[in-house]
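// run 5 | inverse folding | seed 20
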């Protein structure tokens, strides 16, 4: 019986270190985790990631760890499967794909520039404190149309997420039930948090434009609850994950002045005569900002764990796995394991992200539908802030590790900047590192 819980103290003490140590020291493709009576394996071989995500739902599907998120996210595409999941995903993907080729780059750039003006007035800013609301503003404009979310509603969403996320994250891996009065308190807090979020969603929904993602969801004829659940998922996933990564974008810009200069030159290189970034050039000719965003996502993947469950007895990596087994994929561990990366703890932009261990957005047909949008956001944040500022410091340095909750929550990092005196000249080569 003791063996069943032998990993639990280490997991609770240092979740990120626990996953990394298990991955680094694994002697088999799947490493058994002794954290409770339910069978759980850590996927320690990145070659198994695609087979896990590509498997038929009758063999491997979303399971109990994902379903625990329904208390906040309801029956959204994250917690659904089958045809209903595919229909919602397809509707969101179609709208995102159209926006990526038309309006998103100038719209996101305009939002980022508004936040650079706020930073200029302050002279310093908390990296996550500016990155999270910036990402929230972007996703709400994409979801509902421009300015459908008020500043007050924006603040309400951010504060409510902080209120409930730790309780939800703790419940996912909880072995024993809470004491009745503790469970009652947490349930009431979740109810209040979800109610506040739903009120905000409903107000924004009333202002939505015809060109927004919301219109694609409306065409599915979802009932009101299903529609609200899907909107809430997009808001939470679209802002919380990207906002967390954005904090590390600003942190590393404060650490490396030469990187900021190269980003400023790349922005000039792919911009028009007015300084507006040209979408086609961003996608094709922006290697510095692309590598920068990828390196941040390697070191600090916002979705630091993903889960699936075996619906039938299967074989993975030559190992038999019984039905009802949870499988944990940990991009945090894959991104820092020396088996897959040279000097994995070092920040470098000369890496190949075709690496099989680079899976910040998952893989296969269930790869994160908003992954490309997140990449564009991170690139534009880096390029626009580099064009506007010289970064002069960050405190603390080095920064503490993030806190594992539903996502990786960054610590407070105070970044100081000063306005750039002169616009940077374009790079000599658009392929300069």
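// decoded
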């Amino acid at each position: 019986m003791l063996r069943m819980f032998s990993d639990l103290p280490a997991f609770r003490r240092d979740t990120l270190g626990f996953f990394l140590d298990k991955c680094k020291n694994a002697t088999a493709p799947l490493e058994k985790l002794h954290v409770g009576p339910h069978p759980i394996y850590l996927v320690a071989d990145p070659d198994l990631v695609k087979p896990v995500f590509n498997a038929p739902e009758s063999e491997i599907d979303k399971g109990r760890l994902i379903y625990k998120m329904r208390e906040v996210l309801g029956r959204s595409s994250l917690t659904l499967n089958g045809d209903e999941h595919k229909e919602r995903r397809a509707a969101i993907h179609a709208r995102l794909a159209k926006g990526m080729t038309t309006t998103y780059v100038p719209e996101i750039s305009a939002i980022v520039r508004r936040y650079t003006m706020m930073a200029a007035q302050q002279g310093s800013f908390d990296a996550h404190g500016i990155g999270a609301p910036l990402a929230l503003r972007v996703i709400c404009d994409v979801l509902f149309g421009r300015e459908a979310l008020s500043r007050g509603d924006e603040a309400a969403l951010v504060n409510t997420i902080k209120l409930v996320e730790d309780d939800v994250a703790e419940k996912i891996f909880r072995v024993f039930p809470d004491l009745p009065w503790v469970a009652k308190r947490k349930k009431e807090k979740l109810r209040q948090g979800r109610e506040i979020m739903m009120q905000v969603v409903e107000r924004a929904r009333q202002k939505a434009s015809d060109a927004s993602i919301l219109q694609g969801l409306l065409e599915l004829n979802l009932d009101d609850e299903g529609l609200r659940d899907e909107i809430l998922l997009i808001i939470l996933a679209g802002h919380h994950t990207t906002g967390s990564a954005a904090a590390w974008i600003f942190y590393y810009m404060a650490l490396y002045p030469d990187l900021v200069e190269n980003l400023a030159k790349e922005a000039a290189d792919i911009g028009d005569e007015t300084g507006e970034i040209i979408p086609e050039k961003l996608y094709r000719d922006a290697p510095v900002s692309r590598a920068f965003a990828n390196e941040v996502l390697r070191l600090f993947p916002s979705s630091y764990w993903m889960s699936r469950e075996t619906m039938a007895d299967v074989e993975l990596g030559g190992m038999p796995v019984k039905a009802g087994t949870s499988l944990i994929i940990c991009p945090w561990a894959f991104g820092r394991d020396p088996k897959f990366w040279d000097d994995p703890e070092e920040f470098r932009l000369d890496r190949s992200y075709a690496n099989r261990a680079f899976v910040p957005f998952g893989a296969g047909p269930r790869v994160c539908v908003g992954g490309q949008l997140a990449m564009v956001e991170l690139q534009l944040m880096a390029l626009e802030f580099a064009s506007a500022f010289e970064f002069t410091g960050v405190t603390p340095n080095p920064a503490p590790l993030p806190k594992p909750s539903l996502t990786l929550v960054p610590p407070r990092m105070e970044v100081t900047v000063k306005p750039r005196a002169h616009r940077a000249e374009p790079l000599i080569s658009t392929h300069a590192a």
